[in-house]
Amino acid sequence: MTRPRPRRRGLAAAALLGAAALAASATPGAGAAPLGEAVSAASRVTAQDPDAPDGASHRNVLFLTVDDAAIGDLDAMPLARSVLGEAGTSYTQAVAPTPICVPARASMITGQHADNHGAHTISGPQGGAAAFEDDDTLPVALEEAGYETLMVGKYLNGWGADGDLDPPPGWTHWRGTVDPSTYSFFTPTLSVDGRPRSFFRYNSDLFSDLLEDFLRDPGREGRPWFGWVNFVAPHTGSPNVRTEPPNRFAHCLVDRPVRVPVPAPRHEGSASFTPLPDTPDLFAESEPGAPSLDGPTWTLCGREMVQRAHQLRLESLRAVDEAVDRAVATLEEIGQLDDTLVLLVSDNGFVTGQHNRYGKLVPYDQILRVPVLVRGPGFDAGSREGASITMADLATTIAAHAGVRPGRVQDGYPLTDLPRDRVVPLVAWPVRDGSRPLYRGVRTTRFTHALFTDGRELLFDRRVDPAELRNLVDDPAYADTLRAARTATETLAGCAGAECRVLDGTGLPAPD
User: Fold this and answer.
1) What is the pTM of this model?
2) Is 410 left (phi over 0), alpha (psi -120 to 50) or beta?
């Protein structure tokens, strides 16, 4: 599916951020993406009134993302739950329709599902940063509307690995990590507006410092801003590539690898007594009717590795939690909190032993669902929203909040205008090949359906089976549900704009 693209636009002159974070070791960078034309009326995004005075409907946006955090991992972030969740809205049915880094992040800054923005997976054909056409993204629309824009941390997988460190369009300030150093927790290299600089500082703390410098820059006073800070935790990274201490698990080398993140030294051991969630799907033995995607049974040693990996993941989020709290406190101190939209989101979920898996991509709910907390104008304090939302909705919401016109047809909704009984299209591609889907499907607040290209098919009723242990494809009581799910999967495959909303409000039929 093709779409018309506006011409590539020039970047605003980049200004260096404050000196404090730079002195901490060495780097910030350049880059991001543009956005430009009229949005489809079906997207419901309200554009800024062209007759309004400059900045009349422009409000600040702070967009914070974490990498590979499951919805339950918010337990390790009490500060964020307090300053964003209790002071804003928690979304309990937020979904990454393509649950892996690149397509999810591209959706966040385009308002489109992966079929339409074209970056299907993390590497190979139609994968990674090279597959993403970033000349008409949300930051471009914001910068053209007078916003000062900042990107800090991880962009899209593979960015900078070819030596091209020029910022993508739309970013006034670019502090993007250069692959493969993105996953080096203590020694990342960043592109500072196109110039490489190496740092020797824990990455979450570094990113927090760079954001702090930006927020406190007196030169920005009176100009609206958009900041996107991409933390790496709890994604795996170096120097530890296996669970620690390594000798403890030396005899497990024949087992499946379990790669882990690295917590800040001050947080090491803070979750060492935290058990894995005691859910029915944890290291579950395969039974008749069990999903065919379940992995082979883990050895006892392998389970110990997964347990430790879970703890390290939680520990790595502690520094992010502190960074979130610091950012909110700074916004309050400088008098901008009440007029700033603050979002905390993960790009996809993750399983740690559930269904005998360690990872993401397959359509289990703990992989599809992501934590989303939003605070700001229009979002009630302490509320919980159970309507389905997607990664594409985030860009649409930010554009509406900022009063700008996205340059691409929007596949989603603003979070302030969500339908009930939404049918969300699902699709994923193999990790290193985005040319042919691995599966397609749909998800509602009750059902998940997926049809794999190899013929496997799944149907879950999560209301009666929240652990997704029973595949209902052959259950006659769910024949009508399966038939409707298949039709919905076919109808929404490759949908764009209003096409993605034709089934919203209908849901899927349930058994009597």
Assistant:
1) 0.88
2) beta
